[in-house]
Every structure is written in C-alpha cells, then in structure tokens.
Design a protein that fits this description.
The protein has six helices and no strands. The protein has about 160 residues and is mainly alpha-helical. It has a single domain, classed as Up-down Bundle (Ferritin), CATH 1.20.1260. The longest helix has 28 residues.
C-alpha cells in the first residue's frame, strides 16, 4: 500500500513541476512593457531565469518527495502537500501581478508571501529530512534576490498606475 502512495506522490511532484513551470512560462510576457523597463545592472540575463526556475523546481520536487516518504500520517502528507500547492499559487500570482497587470509594486508585496511560503516549506520538510530542507534553500535565496530585483525595478521605473 505504501508503494502505491509513494508512486502516486512522485507523479504529483512531477505534475507540480509541470503546472508551476508551464503556468509561470505562460504568465511571463517578455514584451514591449517589460523590455522598456529600466533594470538594475546586476539583473541576470533573461535566458537565465528559465534555467534558474527549472533547477529550483526540480530541487523542490525532490524535497517534497523525500519529505513525503518520511511522513507517518495522512495529516502530515496533507500539510506538506498544502504548503507546496500554496507556494505554487503564490508563484503564479506574482507572475500575474508583475507581467500581466504590469504592477511590480503589487508583486513586491506578494513576493513576501511567496518568500514566506518557501520558508514554511523549509521548516516543515526539514522536520522530516534535513536534505529536503537544504534542497529548498536555493529557492529561498532566489526569491530573496527576486525581491531585491523587484524593488530595484520599482525604484528605477515607478510609480506604477
């Protein structure tokens, strides 16, 4: 029975990577609005974002899978899965606010919720597996950098209406 749930969870982690990556890609428009923004000199090149996010999501899926294997109860699995789903929603909401609504100011506020969702995942997953917590650290570091980048974009281009 445990093998069935393990396999089902691996599929769920893979689906999570696909949905979040695909949605994020679909919600990200590198069009005239974005290209006309002033960006800080230290911003990574646009092509690097896909590589960074893909790496982060793969590590996060491993973190989820490892922690899932070490959970003992349905409640623990539900908590773990809820945190990852909430994180995915925060991630997608940031893209909507920034790229679709052209509101980096609103996305900056939302980015702190995204950061908090990653921190919550780290705190919960590391209680099951230290390795899972470490696999989430690049995500926390990247969201921290993204917050700084988001702030600098507002400072260089704001206010937004």
């Amino acid at each position: 029975m445990r093998t069935f749930f393990l396999q089902r969870h691996i599929w769920a982690a893979g689906a999570w990577i696909f949905v979040v990556s695909f949605s994020g890609g679909m919600l990200t428009e590198i069009g005239p609005w974005y290209l006309n923004l002033k960006h800080p000199d230290w911003k990574p090149p646009d092509w690097a974002f896909g590589v960074i996010w893909t790496t982060i999501f793969v590590l996060a899926a491993f973190a989820w899978s490892i922690a899932w294997q070490r959970t003992q109860t349905v409640k623990q699995r539900l908590t773990l899965s809820t945190l990852f789903i909430a994180n995915a929603l925060c991630n997608m909401l940031w893209s909507v606010l920034y790229f679709k609504l052209h509101r980096p100011d609103w996305s900056l506020i939302e980015a702190f919720f995204l950061w908090g969702s990653v921190l919550a995942i780290i705190l919960v997953t590391r209680s099951y597996s230290t390795l899972s917590g470490w696999f989430m650290m690049p995500y926390l570091i990247w969201v921290s950098c993204a917050i700084a980048l988001n702030y600098e974009t507002i400072r260089l281009n704001g206010p937004f209406n």
